[in-house]
Design a protein that fits this description.
heterodimer; A: about 475 residues; alpha/beta; six-stranded mixed sheet; 20 strands; about 30% helix; B: about 230 residues; 9 helices; about 75% helix
């Protein structure tokens, strides 16, 4: 890249004077705070910035010595493979086998060649049993693997990955790391834009730190590892070490638990989702709910929140046992997709919706850094801001049990810390906070207790986390 | 249980026949009788529960329509609504199962039918979107319940609360999907290969023959009815 600048059609300048050489076979990690331009950097390499999102490109982007400016997206796609942040919105086919073949079919590879490679590569990666499954039924980690394998079939030399671990659990992230190390051994060039850094420290050759559309510093691995945790935090970066949990459970200081779940059972017609779950939480506790994808964490939370009716068992809130629909008024569940949970025409209206008074709105918005955005439509906010707005609503609801599903997915270090501060305030007010998350770094910084939902011989139970 | 798999192209032709009838056959009794051959067609593909539900719905709506028809102006409005839904039932019977088809198969089938690409790309997008929209819709309803702003008494507001986020989210997902598709060569000119088998078997010819024949018969009966009146 020679002196590359990029301004989106809407007028926002995302990149300024970027000059960067990536060698063949190099493993490059790009990081920085949200909005620093790192995603656009990836998009300039795979052509999406100017070929799809549109805008003005300055300078030159050369891939294998060829200027990509005059190429169609499919031509760049023959050289550069792209993997995106949200695995659920990058696949087309319903069946895994078809999805893996999708790009190869588009590029007109012979059927026999596609099938041969498909069988070989999926066998190598231990994915053969996935081939006939439905894409929609896969976990995010599996979907992300399929996206990568699809690019492997057409044997591209360069990979651009945009926050590929944002939606993955610890296991999925590890598997992704293993896959990437395979690329490295095969001599592929990898450019990866990422917030989560710990799984990449062993792989990276260089780390590019971006700030306000510019490359601020380029580090090699040793230089990056020598940076202290305080400096990393100030840079808005996440930890470089695999997070270790050392939690201190506070226990219920006298009095009854605020949430007491006994023998909870749930299932659809004949199939049990889980049965016999016991769980207890106290006032002021911040508890992480962990467990592999698909084990039923979200379903458990939906039942707590009164969105689903339990089959058997009891749920006691502060000593009372309300009916399942009444739980909708006693708990607040913040689900994953923030944009599906915002209904107002402005930030301040959002906070007023469904409440009788506007009292305290100002200070809530202030505390979450949204005070200057009051007049904006929620749809125009950034991902992190949308998350905080729905968190503001949850605070205003003043319910005793607050449940958050993946509140930090895709957040940089800085925004993660804001979420931590917010949770700690709620905890100080005596709220009980349950966090469904894969983000171990967040659990380590903010939670008092972590429990893992497990299944053993058809018995479900919460186990205290043991690292 | 019999289970027959028809070629997608044959299914498209059935869908085409039924949509032609939806617009060309005015006599509602005659038109709605098409659900019986459609029931058999779906039952052959092991989708008889799906089909039966629609047959029952059609029966209920038809009865309602016949009762409401002669009961004053206000009820007439309801009668027209019944009629509209009734008219869409056969179409839903042939189009519904297509939503479960693999988009790649659909592209392949339409390509072989020599459908122009710009016309069928939106169709495949729609097929891909259907499960996503279904999931998003339930998330929105849940969010409204949690916030306590889901109200049947204010249907317009509720409609606004559901539609706006769905549209915003869909345009976001559509952007991501098409960006991903573009980087994977979907717009590449020239022949795209396919790893799926696609063969037009005898049963497909029979299916196409019968659905075309039936359409013509219906059309002729409709003309006859017109003459009688």
């Amino acid at each position: 890249m020679e002196n590359v600048s990029f301004t989106y059609e809407q007028g926002q300048t995302a990149l300024k004077n970027i000059t960067l050489d990536v060698k063949k076979g190099e493993f490059l990690v790009v990081g920085g705070k949200s909005g620093c331009g790192k995603t656009t950097l990836g998009r300039v390499i795979n052509g999406l910035a100017f070929g799809f999102y549109r805008g003005k490109l300055g300078g030159k982007v050369l891939v294998d010595g060829e200027d990509t400016a005059g190429m169609a997206l499919w031509e760049i796609g023959e050289r550069v493979a792209s993997v995106f942040q949200d695995p659920s919105s990058q696949f087309f086919a319903h069946r895994v086998r078809d999805e893996i073949a999708f790009a190869a079919e588009n590029y007109g590879l012979e059927k026999e060649i596609i099938l041969e490679r498909l069988d070989r590569i999926t066998a190598e990666l231990g994915m053969a049993d996935l081939l006939d499954k439905d894409m929609f039924s896969l976990s995010s980690g599996e979907q992300q693997k399929v996206a990568i394998v699809s690019a492997l079939i057409i044997d591209l030399p360069i990979f651009v990955l945009d926050e590929p671990s944002a939606n993955l659990d610890a296991e999925g992230t590890e598997a992704l790391g293993r896959m990437l190390s395979l690329f490295k051994r095969q001599g592929k060039t990898v450019i990866i834009v990422e917030h989560r850094l710990y799984y990449l420290t062993g792989l990276m050759d260089r780390f590019v730190y971006m700030n306000q559309g510019r490359i601020q510093t380029v580090y090699n691995r040793e230089e990056l590892l020598s940076i202290s945790q305080e400096t990393l935090t100030a840079m808005g970066l996440r930890t470089l070490q695999t997070p270790m949990l050392s939690l201190n459970s506070r226990g219920c200081k006298g009095g009854q638990p605020s949430l007491d779940v006994k023998e909870l059972t749930f299932g659809y017609s004949k199939k049990a989702v889980f049965s016999g779950i016991n769980f207890e939480a106290c006032k002021g506790e911040i508890i992480a709910l962990l467990g592999r994808n698909g084990i039923g964490k979200t379903t458990f939370c939906k039942i707590l929140a009164g969105l689903l009716k339990e089959k058997h068992g009891s749920i006691t809130l502060n000593g009372k046992t309300p009916g399942w629909k009444q739980r909708q008024r006693k708990t607040f569940f913040v689900m994953q997709e923030a944009e599906l949970q915002l209904f107002g025409e402005s930030v301040s209206e959002e906070l007023a919706l469904g409440f009788r008074t506007n009292e305290g709105d100002e200070s809530i918005l202030e505390s979450l850094g949204l005070a200057d955005l009051k007049e904006l439509h929620p749809a125009t906010l950034s991902g992190g801001q949308k998350q905080r707005l729905i968190q503001a609503v949850s605070k205003k609801s003043d319910r005793d049990i607050l449940i958050f599903d993946e509140p930090t997915s895709g957040l940089d270090g800085e925004n993660m810390l804001k979420t931590k501060v917010f949770f700690e305030k709620l905890s100080a007010e005596g709220k009980t906070i349950l966090v469904v998350t894969h983000d171990l770094e967040f659990v380590a910084t903010c939670c008092h207790r972590a429990v893992v939902l497990k299944i053993k011989e058809n018995e479900w139970f919460f186990d205290e986390w043991d690292s | 249980m019999i289970s027959m798999v028809f070629d997608l192209r044959a299914k498209f032709i059935v869908a085409l026949c039924v949509s032609t009838m939806t617009f060309a056959i005015y006599d509602i009794l005659l038109f709605i009788s098409v659900i019986f051959p459609l029931f058999i067609y779906l039952a052959l593909q092991e989708q008889w529960i799906f089909a039966l539900k629609r047959v029952v719905a059609a029966g209920v709506l038809l009865t309602l329509f016949l009762i409401l028809q002669n009961m004053g102006i206000i009820n007439n409005v309801y009668a027209v609504v019944c009629l509209l839904i009734l008219r869409l039932i056969p179409l839903s019977m042939v189009l519904g199962p297509l939503f479960d088809e693999n988009p790649a198969d659909v592209i392949g089938a339409l390509e072989k039918l020599r459908f122009p690409r710009p016309l069928f790309m939106p169709i495949t997008f729609m097929l891909r979107f259907y499960p996503t929209v279904k999931k998003d819709f339930s998330t929105i309803v849940n969010a409204l319940k949690i916030r306590g702003i889901l109200s049947i008494r204010k249907p317009l507001l509720t409609l606004e609360y559901t539609l706006v986020p769905i549209l915003i989210r869909s345009s976001l997902v559509a952007d991501r999907l098409s960006a991903a598709a573009e980087t994977r060569g979907i717009s590449r000119p020239g022949l795209h290969t396919t790893i799926r088998e696609m063969t037009f078997k005898t049963r497909d010819y029979v299916l196409v023959f019968f659905s075309t024949l039936l359409t013509i018969i219906y059309f002729l009966i409709e003309k006859g009815v017109d003459i009688l009146w």
